[in-house]
């Protein structure tokens, strides 16, 4: 899986999407999609502009993992207990995990 590190690079530099938009001219919609890794692809000239502005190489801009990780809400919901299904894939390997989360919304805990 290939993901951009734009959100991390921005945080390290104290930058916001609006700052990148003003400095590079890249649309806010495109910048959000890259930062949140929700887009299906990115143009080379866009990566080039961002790398030049941030002072990084494409190797620094992207992260690569040989695994594909997918998450989705599980059908399991019971009261305050919620479920998340995590699927990890790599070539012929696929593993599913279910994560059950208890959401507590009271104030009976006394934290020092």
Automatic annotation (TrEMBL):
Residues 6-61 form the HTH cro/C1-type domain. GO terms for molecular function: DNA binding. SUPFAM superfamilies: lambda repressor-like DNA-binding domains. CDD domains: HTH_XRE. Signal peptide: none annotated. Pfam families: HTH_26. It comes from the Bacteria. InterPro entries: Cro/C1-type_HTH (IPR001387), Lambda_DNA-bd_dom_sf (IPR010982). This is XRE family transcriptional regulator. It comes from Staphylococcus condimenti. The lineage of its organism: Bacteria, Bacillati, Bacillota, Bacilli, Bacillales.
